[in-house]
Design goal:
Strand content: 5-15%
Strand order of the largest sheet: 3-5-4
Largest sheet: 3 strands, antiparallel
Helix content: 40-55%
Structural class: mainly alpha
Number of strands: 5
Oligomer: single chain
Distance between the termini: 52 Å
Radius of gyration: 22 Å
Length: 293
């Protein structure tokens, strides 16, 4: 065993609760622990999930709980930075920014993601009155927050948004922004219309952020070695082929396949899907796209 050749080995597992094949991974961790190597040290971070606690219950030698008071300091720094440095809040007075800070800190309850989504929504307010009204109507939970985001999607954008969310939740490969535009333009179930229609392609791929709001994010790939080879006049390439689109947070995927959404008494239940449905849709979309050429 190679690791026996080292005096000390430290392995860190971040966000264990976000592992897609969690049961399999937890089994492997249990086997590693059974090696009983004094030189091997494991550190894992995670939310308090039942299956994780069951596996680690008898294995953990030290546990450091992330108390709300500790996370609260980080949340306050984040909110303050966005209010001060974000151009979206530049027109707000000092009193209005303080009101935003106070309200978000009271409602956060240690939920960093909840705060991010509320700021994303609040930055769209255009008047002091609309800001105060929005602050008085903040959703209390993350599920309620995602409910509002889905409910705000325009009727004309619903099908494209659902198609994209299925891909982002279960696609094996990361989508480029350019590919995401083609996903929206492809309807494998179309009957009297083309399966792939250039007329359904977004003029501006960045509009995906407007359609799906805080549910998705656009990033550069981890291997950005080619980024230095793109000149300033290649902005279109930079914004489509060289950028990737992902779900903004693992909780978005959890929400989309949740019982909360499936059993929703509103029209939001149409956004629910499971892994099997998503993979079938992804396969049909690929075939529909290829058959157009």
């Amino acid at each position: 065993m190679i690791i026996r050749n080292f005096q000390a080995i430290y392995i860190i597992f971040d966000a264990l609760d976000e592992c897609w094949e969690r049961s399999r991974f937890l089994k492997v961790l249990g086997e590693v622990h059974d090696w009983k190597l004094d030189t091997l040290h494991l550190l894992a971070t995670s939310r308090k999930e039942g299956d994780i606690h069951k596996v680690f219950g008898g294995l953990v030698s030290h546990e450091v709980p992330m108390d709300e008071c500790l996370i609260g300091g980080d949340i306050q720094v984040y909110v303050s930075r966005r209010l001060v440095e974000g151009v979206e809040f530049r027109m707000c007075s000092a009193g209005e920014k303080e009101m935003v800070m106070t309200t978000l800190m009271q409602g956060a309850q240690g939920m960093f993601r909840w705060v991010v989504c509320q700021l994303d929504a609040l930055q769209k307010c255009k008047t002091p009155v609309s800001l105060k009204k929005a602050l008085s109507r903040l959703p209390k939970t993350l599920n309620e927050t995602y409910d509002r985001i889905l409910a705000a999607i325009d009727e004309d954008d619903k099908q494209g948004a659902l198609s994209l969310l299925k891909w982002l939740a279960f696609s094996f490969d990361t989508l480029s922004l350019d590919q995401a535009v083609d996903v929206i333009a492809t309807d494998p179930d179309a009957i009297d219309e083309p399966l792939f229609d250039l007329g359904r392609r977004l003029w501006d791929p960045q509009d995906i952020l407007t359609i799906c709001s805080s549910l998705v994010t656009i990033t550069f790939p981890k291997d950005s070695s080619n980024k230095g080879n793109i000149n300033h006049h290649d902005d279109n390439v930079l914004s489509t082929e060289a950028r990737e689109i992902r779900l903004a947070h693992f909780s978005v995927r959890e929400y989309l396949i949740s019982e909360h959404l499936r059993t929703s008494m509103t029209t939001l239940s149409c956004y629910y899907f499971n892994e099997k449905v998503a993979h079938i849709f992804i396969a049909k979309t690929c075939l529909a796209y290829l058959l157009q050429f």
